[in-house]
Amino acid sequence: MEYFTSVPISEHITRICDPAAVAMYLVTGERGAVLMDTGCGFGNLREYVSSLTDKPVTVLLTHGHLDHAAGASNFDRVYMNHRDREVYRIHCDIAYRRSFYRDIPVIGQIPESEYARPAEMPFEDLYDGQVFDLGGISVEAVAVPGHTPGMMMLLMPQERTILFGDACGVGVMLFEDWALSVGEYRKSLLALKESCEGRYDRILRNHGTFVSTKQVLDDCISCCDDILAGRDDHVPVKVFGQEGFYQAKRVDGHGCRLDGREGNILYRSDKAR
Predict the structure, then answer these.
(1) How far apart are CA 186 and CA 217, in angstroms?
(2) Which residue segment(s) compose the domain that 104 sits in?
């Protein structure tokens, strides 16, 4: 199996996709490179990245989920916010990953020998405002806790580009025990808007279409307002086959909001506070 494909986004940014169609982003400067996330942890990601750049690579993990952090052990220098250590420990366990992927076409058949092993913890801490200067381009960490407690966005100001990742998008998930409440998440989004608005024009994501419009941030803030006021559509949904979750806004068969807007939130009832 060919585990990875890639496509250039700009002179400095390359999108890499793994067999689960999860995107990672390689940012290359004059002196070094940053790999933003490491996907589901199948195959030899380090070898593939080495075919794209000869610069020393530092890994920045947006959060500790299995589809973003599982390939981290391929690399020597990895940063992740300390608040996601428990998330990583649970999600990147081999047994947990095999169970999660078991019934998914294609990747469910990947043998365990092709799974990257969990990395030793802790990683180097990734904190809000931390800047990685690669020479001609830099990557800045922006804390947006909600989806997980240590959730980070990654801003490339010279490219006027930001990786929203799972922190803000068309189906932000706030239902795991460690996810923040809707009210806390709303505060994170408002802080993001205040600190970064005007510093980016392009939004990248790790799933789906891999891009969003700038409207998505205001849409998610509005979803939070509606959930907290009890006026969202409150649509019952199954998540990974489990019931008890709700979607803030109704969508069509393609997952697009019926009202034509973009951002949406999936949440557990006890998070609606």
Answers:
(1) 10
(2) 5-271
Of 26, 47, 15, whose CA–CA distance to 114 is shortest?
A: 47
Strands 235-239 and 242-247: antiparallel
> Which residue intervals of the chain are DSSP H helices?
45-50, 66-69, 85-91, 94-101, 182-196, 215-229
Amino acid at the residue 235? V
Q: Could you list the beta-strand ranges (E) of 43-181.
A: 57-60, 78-80, 124-125, 131-133, 138-143, 152-156, 161-163, 172-174
DSSP 7-20: EESSSSEEEEE-TT
> What's the CATH number where 136 sits?
3.60.15.10
Q: Which residues contact 47 (CB under 8 A, 6 or more apart)?
A: none
Predicted pLDDT of residue 15: 98
Cα separation of 227 and 220, whole Å?
10
- Token pair 């909001």 is found at 257
Residues 132-179 have pLDDT tens digits of 999 999 999 999 999 999 999 999 999 999 999 999 999 999 999 999
Burial class (CB in 10 A: 0-12, 13-18, 19+), 171: middle
Cut 0.85: pTM above it: yes
Token representation of residue 189: 């989004």
Domain tally, the chain: 1
Mean pLDDT of the chain: 96
Q: For 237-246, what is each residue's pLDDT tens digit?
A: 998 888 999 9
